[in-house]
Specification:
Length: 450
């Protein structure tokens, strides 16, 4: 196993051990392409989602939210081009039965129809549609076919007129949505990087034709800044512009933000100029007029252009985990305790913000610590741990990425002070209990990763 695979292995194992991510249906041998988010995982996922939602809707006056249904009218997917174009090239090995994406294997072997695993004969390449098909209602005939959405974007397009009218929105404006998407991926590997069930955070920005390039540049800058603001190591990010043969069927221009995962640089989020492709197609397929009426410009009518920012929420979670993960030497005693595993999450992203730890369970310290936790709870996500040596408890919190620990000791009973311990520097300060909330608030606001 190379170093990169070993790092991923450690992250997968930490995720399971600490309850971030579990394999779906594990007791039945696991379900490929599906994962479950445990207590720490769901807090982390919620925090990433909240940060994105705040960024989009709270900090931009002209962006509103939506939560559209996963099941949509099947004509949506004809109009969007997904029925025809949302395919991957697939080959199977006739001997070992392995299945590959033809564009992801050695092209010389593909040309010779030779299996990269066992050398057996490969089938011809065929197009495989990634949409999950099911049927609605009791009869399973083709008239009842329905798809699980492969992107959240279409729910926004079909609602754009409803939203613009009900909220009296003027162009340019955006609609943001977070939700599940499903793709029948041929190859699912690298933990939660590429899965069949995942979540997206998408924002569609509606602009005047001709102003699309300006807004495309604007949104690229905004999305880059988002990661910087949330503590990601910026040398791990880069841009990748799609070449003509990579562009999706709807895009005029597309740039990906790529992150250097343990397996290399991979797509994290895409910013796409989708032009008027989607709304034109929905006009054609639905027969409804989806033009925008520009009342400020003599009732000028046009189909808006759309700039899309499309990030995977679950892929972001993997990115935040990989970026936070560090093994640090903290002592030189020649044993395993010399090292600590620490997740250096930004405090706004960390699943738990503060852990309260009584030095001892006895002499009223546990009760006092619980009382302090009650106070902190109103403001922060907290944890409480009274089991084992204090050093071990700090390590447990480091491994969960908790940025602050509050320790309650005998002095606390006398003078109402506590110890505040910082995850990153491991420094400790003594402060009055009455100043705790304000101090933690300030530390979160001024947080810089070391
Ligand atoms: N609406 C445009 C769209 O869906 P995409 O590039 O296919 O564009 C956007 O997907 C983002 O969704 C990707 O950058 C990635 O973060 C996430 N994503 C796509 N497929 C995924 C999968 N199978 N598993 C996890 N995340 C996925």
């Amino acid at each position: 196993m190379d170093d990169h695979a070993a790092t991923m292995e450690k992250i997968v194992s930490l995720s399971k051990r600490r309850g971030f991510v579990f394999q779906s249906s594990e007791i039945y041998g696991g379900q490929n392409g599906a994962w479950d988010y445990g207590p720490l995982g769901i807090e982390l996922k919620n925090n990433i989602q909240r940060a994105w939602w705040r960024e989009m809707t709270q900090l931009h006056d002209n962006i509103v939210g939506l939560d559209a249904a996963i099941l949509m009218h099947p004509r949506v997917w004809e109009a969007s081009g997904h029925v025809e174009n949302f395919t991957d090239p697939l080959v199977d090995c006739k001997k070992c039965k392995s299945r590959f994406r033809a564009d992801q294997i050695d092209q010389e072997k593909l040309a010779k129809k030779e299996c990269p695993e066992c050398g057996g004969e490969l089938t011809d390449t065929r197009k495989f549609n990634l949409m999950f098909k099911t049927s609605i209602g009791p009869a399973e005939d083709s008239s009842n076919t329905i798809f699980l959405r492969p992107e959240t974007a279409q729910g926004i397009y079909v609602n754009y007129k409803n939203i613009a009218q009900s909220n009296r929105l003027k162009i340019p404006f955006g609609i943001a949505q977070v939700g599940k998407a499903f793709r029948n991926e041929i190859v699912t590997k690298n933990f939660i990087f590429r899965t069949c069930e995942f979540e997206q955070m998408e924002m569609q920005f509606f602009v005047k034709p001709g102003e699309d390039v300006k807004w495309f540049d604007f949104w690229r800058e905004q999305r880059w800044a988002f990661y910087q603001k949330h503590g990601i190591r910026m040398d791990k990010l880069r841009w990748h512009q799609h070449g003509p043969d990579e562009l999706a069927h709807y895009a005029k221009d597309a740039w990906d933000i790529e992150y250097e995962f343990p397996m290399g640089f991979r797509e994290l989020e895409g910013v796409h100029n989708r032009t008027d492709f989607d709304l034109k197609r929905h006009t054609e397929y639905s027969g409804k007029d989806l033009q925008y009426i520009d009342q400020d410009n003599g009732n000028d009518r046009f189909i808006p252009y759309i700039i899309e920012t499309s990030a995977g929420l679950t892929r972001n979670l993997l990115m935040f985990l990989c970026d936070a993960y560090e093994e640090e030497k903290v002592a030189d005693k020649g044993n395993a305790d010399d090292w600590r595993t620490v997740l250096r999450f930004h405090p706004k992203i960390a699943p738990v913000t503060v852990a309260v730890l009584p030095l001892m369970k006895k002499d009223g310290l546990a009760e006092l610590a619980q009382e302090i936790r009650q106070e902190l709870k109103e403001e922060f996500m907290t944890d409480y741990d009274q089991a084992g040596a204090i050093g071990k408890r700090y390590r447990r919190q480091d491994e969960a990425g908790t940025p602050f620990c509050v320790t309650v000791d005998y002095d606390s009973k006398e003078d109402n002070t506590v110890t505040l311990r910082f995850r990153d520097s491991m420094e400790q300060v003594r402060i009055p209990r009455s100043e705790l909330v304000e101090r933690i608030r300030t530390e979160i606001k001024n947080y810089k990763r070391i």
